[in-house]
Amino acid sequence: MTTRKHTNGVDRTYADWLRARELLLIGLHDLKTPLSAMRTCIELLSPGKGQPVNQESWLQLTGTLEILVGRAAGLVDVMMKDLGGEMNRPVVRTTAPAMRMKAVR
What we know:
It is a single chain. By secondary structure, this protein is an all-alpha fold. It has helices spanning 2-45, 55-82, 96-104. The chain has one domain (2-104). Helix content is 77%, strand content 0%. The termini are far apart. Mean pLDDT is 75; it is low at 1-5 and 96-105.
């Protein structure tokens, strides 16, 4: 009877591990989209990587980056919660709003 309980516990632990692994893989796959879009925005904003960006495009790209960073952070938070952990960190604000104010002045 003891062996049976141990086996059930191991089975349950393995099933929990498989579920966590699946959630992590799904989350990592979902992170690829905003990360790829962030890379594109950064490349467009980087000097020497193409045509110069005018102020309107710069504001649009930095705004898009801010949204994408928020989405990626949200996905990480959801994954952490689903996996039974919480990230005890303050909400990180991007510098995009400050940069926008600078660009407008």
